[in-house]
Amino acid sequence: MTMWENARYLVSAGHDVTFVCSKYVGARRNEIIDGIKVVRLGGLRSMWLLSFLYYLFRGGRSYDVVVTEGFGGSRIPRLVPLYARQPIITEWHQIHRELFATQYPALLNGPLNLLERITAWVHRNTHIRAGTEEWRTAFPKIGFKPENLFIVPISIRDEWLSNQNGHGASEPTILWLGKLRRYKRPDHIVRAMPEVIRRVPAARLTIAGRHDDLGYERELHELAQKLGVDDHVDFRFGLSDAEKLELFRSARLLALPSSVEGFGIVAIEANACGIPVVASSGVPEGAVRDDFNGLRYRFGDIQALGSAIVRLLDDPVLYARLSTNSTSNAQRYRWSRVGAEFESVVVQLAGQR
């Protein structure tokens, strides 16, 4: 998402951009979207090899700058610095240790952490984009050179900021939104709901976004039933952009109980709609500042999570202040502003070449 939005801005500023990504059933191999030349190669498990072959045989050396995802969504790292000779910007969203510990069997944690460190070593001489000051400070722990790190945050499209929702919905609706994966811990909100409902009887929780871990999804349904809160918990998936925006408008607050987040763009989307965020300590403070655009609590503390939710639902003065701050905070992440920051880095590196 971050790479695509930056590519959109570069094209709007007059640059030529080729976006190499994985294919899916029914997709064209080559097309132009938003002015970006899109090239779709293999699946997520073969992208590392096909990206190399594309670079080698399709004029990869003609580009001025290469932007690559270092570790994460590509599943198998592409290891672009081993063959690309242009200046390279590496997108590295977070250190994954906590994610691995929560998401995968313990037997895999050691190998996955080692793979992340090896990949970071391969990218050590590239220019590393960090989304927040916390990650810029943390990234040297896995081998990045501090002098190669720069901060450019995520962005949201300007149209989000023209559809602000004032001070959020009046009904006590709690929203969790994202790709349903275990490390994001929406189950923590479900566990907090009995106490929330005891203190705010009309409170409801909506868990929405994209299917991913179906086993975990079943566990959430079973947990809600076991705790006797299933009448207060709704599940919605496969949302269109319009439905997603409407869901924000119908929410009073957003809860982000993740064990770790690279940034949490959903927090800024909520802020753009005037919605404060209850965030765990796994969410960077660059995204949610305590008592400014939301409330923070220590990850895993279910009681503290529930108390923070009740505070926002019960205290209209606090809510109004945080809601007002939220809308002004979202302006910092306007696409046109963040895109210009990223473009300045690209132009500087292209000039060095």
Could you explain how this protein is built, in words?
The mean pLDDT is 92. This protein is an alpha/beta fold. The protein is built from 13 helices and 13 strands. It has 2 domains: 2-155 and 334-352, Glycogen Phosphorylase B (Rossmann fold), CATH 3.40.50; 158-333, Rossmann fold (3-Layer(aba) Sandwich). The chain is 41% helix and 17% strand. Helix 10 (265-272) packs across helix 12 (316-330). The strands form 3 sheets. A 6-stranded parallel sheet has the order 10-9-8-11-12-13, sandwiched between helices. The chain has a 4-stranded parallel sheet with strand order 4-5-6-7. The protein has helices at residues 2-12, 47-57, 97-103, 106-122, 133-138, 158-161, 186-199, 214-226, 241-249, 265-272, 302-314, 316-330, 335-352, and strands at residues 18-21, 30-33, 36-40, 66-69, 88-91, 127-130, 149-151, 173-179, 204-210, 233-237, 253-256, 277-280, 294-297.
Secondary structure topology:
Layout (H helix, E strand, L loop, with lengths): L1 H11 L5 E4 L8 E4 L2 E5 L6 H11 L8 E4 L18 E4 L5 H7 L2 H17 L4 E4 L2 H6 L10 E3 L6 H4 L11 E7 L6 H14 L4 E7 L3 H13 L6 E5 L3 H9 L3 E4 L8 H8 L4 E4 L13 E4 L4 H13 L1 H15 L4 H18 L1
Parallel strand pairs: 1-3, 4-5, 5-6, 6-7, 8-9, 8-11, 9-10, 11-12, 12-13
Antiparallel strand pairs: 2-3
List keywords for this structure.
353 residues, alpha/beta, Rossmann fold, 2 domains, six-stranded parallel sheet, four-stranded parallel sheet, 13 strands, 41% helix, 17% strand, globular
